[in-house]
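STRUCTURE:
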């Protein structure tokens, strides 16, 4: 019995009503016990006297006993009626409380089984401030289920994307190796170099993925320090100037005076700039121009990387920060890009409280990537 009460919310509600009724009746009975004799003396005794005078043999004591019996009987009837009401009310309330909790339990176990589309019905078209706690719990539950659903979809997509990204270099390596083994491909430095490039691509993809998972999980610590925009920009230029010269793309910088100072993790922000300036080189044909412009605004600093390259069609602009996304798949793949660079760059800029935006008037009209950083994060 005790176990049944412990494990059923409906029974618990019923018992709680019962306790209230029993306590109420006990208090009433005790109060009546104390109050009845005096109330009887005050209201009924004179009447009993009169009746006793009229009807011989009926004493005041008899009247008191009858009065008390009548009172006890009404108390008993009231307690039975209250008991019946308690049963009905507890059934009604427990239906209203227990039914949603039960459906929540059922939905939880469906989700645990991997059915992430499971949602709870929210009664009526209630506004947030009209909902009781149970309806609000159902809304929160649905939000949690939607987040889980989204995470699961992303996880599935990620596995698919990674498998897809691994397949191409692996089949190229396998094809080259088979050619070498069968003697179809002559062992030459070029053949080995081709294999080396694919292995290098794989290695970069794996380390990009590792870094992406670390930033997405927030498993990093920013080593913040104050640094001038000029030093940040010079770092990227120093690393890439030779490659620009080699390709025949001019690289310029433009800085305001005084040069704004930012509080950033130099390595991470340097990596962001390296990615943007590297992309600008990759997507700008020989003879083109890339400008890195630093600017100080009231409460933030901006670095714009502007190129005169192949540009990005407007409809693809919002997608360039999506992992594995490349506007021109074959071109980027040939260039060795995994399509994760901008995803990681955006994460790093946002980790500093800033934003990274892409803009382009359209294909073949150049692109501009803007890093916006607060002066103090
Ligand atoms: P990847 O490693 O392929 O360069 P990114 O995440 O850095 O990956 O860039 C994603 C895609 O965005 C690129 O494949 C390219 O299509 C597009 N993109 C990035 N930068 C530029 C740019 N400066 N000009 C034109 N397209 C660009």
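SEQUENCE:
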């Amino acid at each position: 019995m005790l176990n049944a009460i412990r494990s059923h919310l409906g029974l618990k509600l019923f018992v709680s009503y019962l306790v209230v009724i029993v306590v109420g009746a006990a208090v009433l009975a005790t109060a009546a016990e104390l109050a009845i004799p005096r109330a009887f003396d005050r209201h009924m005794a004179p009447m009993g006297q009169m009746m006793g005078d009229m009807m011989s043999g009926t004493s005041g004591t008899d009247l008191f006993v009858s009065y008390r019996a009548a009172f006890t009987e009404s108390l008993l009837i009231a307690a039975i009626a209250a008991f019946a009401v308690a049963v009905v009310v507890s059934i009604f309330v427990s239906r209203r409380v227990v039914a949603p909790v039960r459906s929540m339990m059922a939905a939880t176990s469906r989700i645990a089984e991997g059915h992430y589309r499971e949602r709870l019905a929210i009664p009526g078209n209630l506004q947030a401030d009209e909902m009781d706690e149970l309806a609000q719990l159902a809304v929160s539950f649905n939000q949690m289920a939607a987040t889980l659903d989204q995470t699961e979809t992303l996880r599935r997509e990620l596995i698919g994307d990674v498998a897809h990204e691994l397949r191409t270099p692996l089949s190229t390596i396998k094809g080259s190796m088979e050619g070498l083994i069968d003697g179809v491909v002559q062992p030459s430095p070029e053949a080995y170099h081709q294999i080396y490039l694919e292995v290098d691509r794989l290695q970069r993809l794996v380390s990009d993925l590792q870094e992406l998972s670390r930033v997405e999980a927030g498993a990093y610590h920013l080593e913040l320090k104050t640094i001038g925009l000029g030093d940040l920009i010079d770092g990227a230029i120093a690393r890439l100037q030779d490659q620009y010269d080699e390709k025949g793309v001019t690289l310029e910088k433009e800085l305001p005076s005084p040069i704004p100072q930012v509080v950033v993790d130099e390595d991470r922000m340097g990596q962001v700039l390296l990615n943007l300036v590297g992309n600008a080189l990759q997507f700008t044909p020989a003879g083109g121009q890339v400008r890195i412009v630093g600017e100080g605004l009231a409460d933030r600093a901006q670095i714009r990387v502007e190129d005169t390259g192949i540009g990005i069609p407007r409809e693809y602009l919002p997608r360039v920060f999506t992992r594995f996304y490349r506007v021109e798949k074959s071109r980027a793949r040939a260039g060795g890009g995994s399509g994760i660079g901008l995803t990681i760059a955006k994460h790093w800029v946002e980790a500093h409280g800033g934003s990274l935006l892409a803009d382009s008037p359209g294909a073949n009209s150049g692109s501009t990537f803007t890093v916006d950083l607060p002066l103090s994060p």
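REMARK: The chain is about 65% helix and 10% strand.
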